[in-house]
C-alpha cells in the first residue's frame, strides 16, 4: 500500500505524434510542409471545433497564406503531416475545450491539443521581454520569442506544481475542498513549487501549510501538463497520521476529511464533479491526474 504506482498514464500526458523539435528552426522544411499542413484554431477560452464524435476538426494552413504566418505555433506531426496552431477570436461550429475533451482524444490529438493550449497561453502573456520590457517577436516556429531591443531570447514558461495523495499507509486518504467548492466536492492537496525548493520539500511544506500535519515517505508517481494557464502537475504520495489534528492555516482549505477506501471507491463509481448525483463525496474528472491517483490508490 505504501509504494503504489499509477495504473495508467494521466490523460493529458499522452502524446503519440512526435513534436519534431528538429524542424522548428528549419525554415525551408516548414515552408515545404506548410502547403499540406493541418491547422488547429484555438480561441481565447481554449476552445476548438470538434466533430459529432468529439474529435478535433482541423483546417488547412493554406487558408492563412502560402507560408507560415506570424504567431502560428508548429506542434509537430500527425500521420506525417505538419500541424500548426493559431489563436483566433471566434470559431464556428461545435466547441469544446481540453478539460472536457482530453479523455475522448487519441494519444496524438491529446498531445497536439495540450501543446497548443500551453504554447498559445504563453504567447498571450509574453509580448514584452521580462528583462527589459521591450516588445518581443515570436521565432523558432512559435517556440521562443526575441526582444526587439536586445535580442534576448525567452522560451515558453511552465510553472511546476505538486499534487500529493496523503494516505495513512493503510485504508484512509486525506481529501480536502476549497472554500468556494460545494460541501461534497473534494480532491487531493496541491500547491506551487517555490523558488529554490525541491519537489519533495514542497510536498512537505504545502501539506503542513494547508492542513497542518507532517507527512513522510514522499515518493513520485507521475506528471501531467495542466496548461491553465501553464502548469505542470507533479504527482506524489505521502503518509500522514489521521490522529494528528488538522489545521487550515493559510486559508486555502475550508475542510479536510480522512475518507476510507470504500468511500472513495463508491465516489469514483458515481462519476465526477460534473455529476448531478446527490452524494456526500464527488471527485475530480478523468482529465485530472488527481482522479488517476485516487483510482490507483484504491486499486
TrEMBL record:
Q: Which InterPro entries match?
A: NAD-cap_RNA_hydrolase_NudC, NADH_PPase-like_N, NudC-like_C, NUDIX_hydrolase-like_dom_sf, NUDIX_hydrolase_CS, NUDIX_hydrolase_dom
**Molecular function (Gene Ontology), one example:** hydrolase activity
Signal sequence: where? none
- Specify the superkingdom: Bacteria
Q: Which UniProt keywords apply?
A: Hydrolase, Magnesium, Metal-binding, NAD
Nudix hydrolase domain segment(s): 156-281
Its recorded reaction(s) are: a 5'-end NAD(+)-phospho-ribonucleoside in mRNA + H2O = a 5'-end phospho-adenosine-phospho-ribonucleoside in mRNA + beta-nicotinamide D-ribonucleotide + 2 H(+)
Give the span(s) annotated as Disordered: 1-20
Q: Does the keyword Phosphoprotein apply?
A: no
- The record's EC number reads 3.6.1.22
Pfam families per the UniProt record, alphabetical: NUDIX, NUDIX-like
Catalytic EC class: hydrolase
- Per its Swiss-Prot or TrEMBL entry, what cofactor is needed? Zn(2+); Mg(2+)
Which family is it part of?
A: Belongs to the Nudix hydrolase family. NudC subfamily.
The name of this protein is NAD(+) diphosphatase
Amino acid at each position: 500500500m505504501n509504494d503504489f504506482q499509477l495504473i495508467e498514464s494521466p490523460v493529458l500526458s499522452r502524446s503519440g505524434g512526435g513534436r519534431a523539435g528538429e524542424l522548428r528552426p528549419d525554415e525551408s522544411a516548414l515552408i515545404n510542409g506548410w502547403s499540406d499542413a493541418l491547422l488547429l484554431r484555438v480561441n481565447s477560452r481554449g476552445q476548438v471545433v470538434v466533430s459529432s464524435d468529439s474529435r478535433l476538426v482541423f483546417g488547412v494552413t493554406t487558408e492563412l497564406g502560402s507560408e507560415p504566418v506570424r504567431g502560428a505555433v508548429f506542434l509537430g506531426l500527425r500521420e506525417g503531416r505538419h500541424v500548426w496552431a493559431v489563436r483566433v477570436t471566434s470559431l464556428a461550429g461545435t466547441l469544446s475545450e481540453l478539460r472536457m475533451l482530453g479523455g475522448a482524444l487519441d494519444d496524438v490529438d491529446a498531445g497536439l491539443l495540450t501543446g497548443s493550449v500551453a504554447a498559445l497561453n504563453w504567447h498571450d502573456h509574453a509580448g514584452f521581454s521580462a528583462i527589459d520590457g521591450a516588445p518581443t517577436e515570436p521565432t523558432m516556429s512559435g517556440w521562443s520569442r526575441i526582444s526587439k531591443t536586445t535580442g534576448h531570447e525567452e522560451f515558453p514558461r511552465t510553472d511546476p506544481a505538486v499534487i500529493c495523495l496523503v494516505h495513512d499507509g493503510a485504508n484512509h486518504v486525506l481529501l480536502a475542498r476549497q472554500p468556494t467548492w460545494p460541501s461534497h466536492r473534494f480532491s487531493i492537496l496541491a500547491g506551487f513549487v517555490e523558488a529554490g525548493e525541491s519537489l519533495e520539500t514542497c510536498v512537505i511544506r504545502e501539506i503542513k501549510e494547508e492542513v497542518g500535519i507532517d507527512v513522510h515517505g514522499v515518493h513520485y508517481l507521475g506528471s501531467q501538463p495542466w496548461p491553465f494557464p501553464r502548469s505542470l502537475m507533479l504527482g506524489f504520495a505521502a503518509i500522514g497520521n489521521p490522529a494528528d489534528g488538522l489545521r487550515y492555516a493559510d486559508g486555502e482549505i475550508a475542510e479536510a476529511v480522512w475518507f476510507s477506501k470504500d468511500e472513495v471507491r463508491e465516489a469514483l463509481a458515481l462519476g465526477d464533479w460534473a455529476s448531478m448525483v446527490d452524494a456526500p463525496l464527488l471527485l475530480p474528472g478523468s482529465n485530472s491526474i488527481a482522479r488517476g491517483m485516487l483510482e490507483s490508490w484504491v486499486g
